[in-house]
Design brief:
With 322 residues, the protein is of the alpha+beta class. Helix content is 32%, strand content 15%. The chain has 9 helices and 10 strands. The protein has helices spanning 15-21, 72-89, 123-132, 140-160, 215-218, 227-242, 267-273, 290-299, 310-320; strands at 36-41, 44-51, 58-66, 100-105, 111-116, 121-122, 163-164, 173-176, 181-184, 191-192. Strand 2 and strand 3 (58-66) form a beta hairpin. Helix 4 crosses helix 9 (310-320). The longest helix has 21 residues, at 140-160.
Length: 322
């Protein structure tokens, strides 16, 4: 693994002072039990690290670290993924991409990626809360705000950094406050794009998350382009309209004691639906959702060439804004 010291937080003092002070100061990250857990993913957990050294008020960090349950070959896999994410993230600078802060070890010896704190909740968290509260679809204005901010982040990744995010979904979007800031996170499975916006590296493997995968990512030998992110982006807007996971149609009981059995899940229907545009209950949506529906529809075309680029989405949404 690449020397972890290469990832230390850059010193913001002048070069003269930097030389006088020596190397970048050590970043002290507490052990997991001393931080608030924000969430978790495959092989990792994310914590809130509050920073107030010597009584000063510093902005908090989000700390991503390996789950203690990881062991053996899986530990190596997730350790490499965390290292790869640190390499990518430290070179990204955009208001709609969670910022890099440091890559180091916590006091308990675990490998940690310190990032800008983009908010205590992911978009997925907000969707779940709304679903549990029977809140109905998010207002169209909120969905469009998420859409334009996500699209700006994707435009930066695709055009300026020639990177495919590779795992766009609501849980990889963090929200601060009442949609005050919207940032894309988790770039650990990003893939390089060539000048034609295509993934051509023979060693590059599209990971994604199954319900959000486009048709080309489900086919053997399918050509992966920037439009794979656009399909998943469209399904993220669908999540905000339906408060559900794409293609996962779980039966809903009429009483609080109703329970779901795994045998009730229709595997055949689920796998047949993957890579297609899921339906929307139009009875729940009024005329204010017209632009959201049009955007969702065009972004989830099965043919990649029929989907817009992130730049085209940004242009369309910016033009439509009053």
């Amino acid at each position: 693994m690449e020397d972890i010291n290469n990832f230390k937080t850059p010193n913001k003092v002048s070069e003269t002072k930097k030389n006088a002070l020596g190397s970048t100061p050590c970043v002290n990250i507490p052990a997991s039990p001393f931080m608030q857990k924000l969430g978790f993913g495959t092989g990792v957990s994310v914590y809130l690290m509050k920073r107030s050294p010597r009584g000063l008020s510093h902005s908090p960090w989000a700390i991503k670290k390996l789950n203690p349950q990881c062991d053996g070959q899986y530990e190596n896999v997730y350790q490499k993924r965390l290292t790869d994410e640190a390499k990518i993230l430290r070179n990204l600078h955009h208001p709609n991409i969670v910022g890099y802060r440091a890559f180091t070890k916590a006091s308990d010896g675990s490998l940690c990626l310190a990032m800008e704190f983009g908010g205590e909740k992911s978009l997925h968290d907000l969707i779940e809360e709304r679903h549990m509260g029977d809140g109905g679809p998010f207002p169209a204005a909120n969905i469009l705000k998420v859409a334009v901010n996500m699209a700006r982040g994707l435009k930066y990744l695709h055009q300026e950094k020639k990177l495919l995010h590779g795992d766009i979904k609501s849980s990889n979007v963090v929200i601060k406050g009442d949609f005050e800031t919207i940032k894309i996170c988790d770039v650990g499975v990003s893939l390089p794009l060539d000048e034609n916006m295509t993934v051509t590296d023979p060693e590059a493997c599209y990971i994604g998350t199954e319900p959000w995968k486009p048709k080309e990512a489900l086919e053997e030998g399918g050509v992966i382009t920037d439009k794979a992110d656009i399909f998943a982006f469209g399904l993220t807007l669908w999540e905000m309209m339906t408060l559900a996971i794409p293609h996962v149609n779980l039966p809903e009981g009429d009483d609080e004691d109703a329970s779901f059995n795994e045998s009730d899940f229709d595997d055949e229907a689920y796998y047949a639906a993957l890579g297609t545009r899921p339906p929307v209950n139009m009875d729940e949506l009024d005329g204010s959702y017209q632009q959201v529906l049009e955007l969702f529809s065009v972004c989830t075309n099965e043919e990649p060439r029929d989907r817009p680029s992130a730049a085209q989405v940004v242009d369309a949404l910016d033009t439509a804004r009053p």
